[in-house]
Amino acid sequence: MENSKELRTWLDNMELPHPLVIAGPCSAETEEQVMKIAHELKDSDVSYYRAGIWKPRTRPGNFEGVGALGLKWLQRVKEETGLKTCTEVANKTHVDLALEHDIDLLWIGARTSVSPFMMQDIADALEGTDKVVLVKNPINPDLPLWLGGIERLYKKGIKNLGAIHRGFSTYAKTKYRNIPEWQLAIEFQNRFPDLPLINDPSHITGKREMVFDVSQTALDLNFDGLMIETHHDPENAWSDARQQVTPDALKQMFVDLKMRKETDEEAEYNSKLAGNRAQIDVLDNQLIDLLGQRMKVADEIGALKKSKNVAVLQSNRWNAILGKMILEGEQKGLSEEFVLKMFKAIHQESINHQEKIINS
């Protein structure tokens, strides 16, 4: 798969003047809802109309999708609007029904891609299909597991393959619903540049007001497209109401998002430069998040020291940390001078945090 140049063919054949756009409601709720959204999106940059027919839910009793009935609604979408259609499949039955109803693109969700057994069953059911098949990253940040699922499909003769980056689950409380772990997506691109990679800002953010910024970051990192959940009345959506945008908001994104074209040497230079800068921005944000987490731990240490009347500065501990970090920094190509300056600044901020707590 690593040397295959055919994986991007399906996307290249579309000859789109912009990145691929997949949009539509999180869930197909009623035929009227599905058709209304589709007609509002038909004269836009949307190429594939998405709607969840079967919805995996953590607990029983929540809305789990309308089932096979919704596939007929998607057939009507294609007939009336000309939009290609797509939905999520999680087992052989889903695959058989989706193919029977001529769904154009099938994606495999994060809760399914985490299981090699389920991926193999789906690969067997899809063997030899010419439909487009996209694989979302597993819920945990495991690149070999993600790639392994895609490879199972490839070995079954499925050539119209791609991947969807939808972020990763975490117990830590962050501003994201699923942390993007951009570095993992970048590594994915570096290892498989011919495998189309789509970003799902809806599931990464969990908040509609953040969808634009994550979409722009994805485009800056040369993702091939976006999958954005879109609903005409998102506040009353039956699932994931908080992260869906309206069709009008989506169309405005198409106007505001900066999309680059690599048409000549200058454009290629600008694209690579912007991509590298976007990687630096991602890493800088991660640094700030990590430093924030570190200072929270420092606050807890300050509270412990206060309870035991212990001095803030512990020289032995500090010298041990500094020596270790200098050695590890050298292995990463960082100068001793830089590591000293950086950790002295971090240490001083940590002391400031602890003193504030002890003196409070």
UniProtKB/TrEMBL annotation:
Query: Keyword Zinc-finger, does the record have it?
Result: no
Question: Which segments constitute the Chorismate mutase domain?
Answer: 267-358
EC no. given is: 5.4.99.5
Pfam families, per database record? CM_2, DAHP_synth_1
Keywords per UniProt: Transferase
Q: Which InterPro entries match?
A: Aldolase_TIM, Chorismate_II_sf, Class-I_DAHP_synthase, CM_dom_sf, CM_II_prokaryot, DAHP1/KDSA
EC top class named in words: isomerase
> Per its record, how is this protein called by name?
chorismate mutase
The record lists the lineage as: Bacteria, Pseudomonadati, Bacteroidota, Flavobacteriia, Flavobacteriales
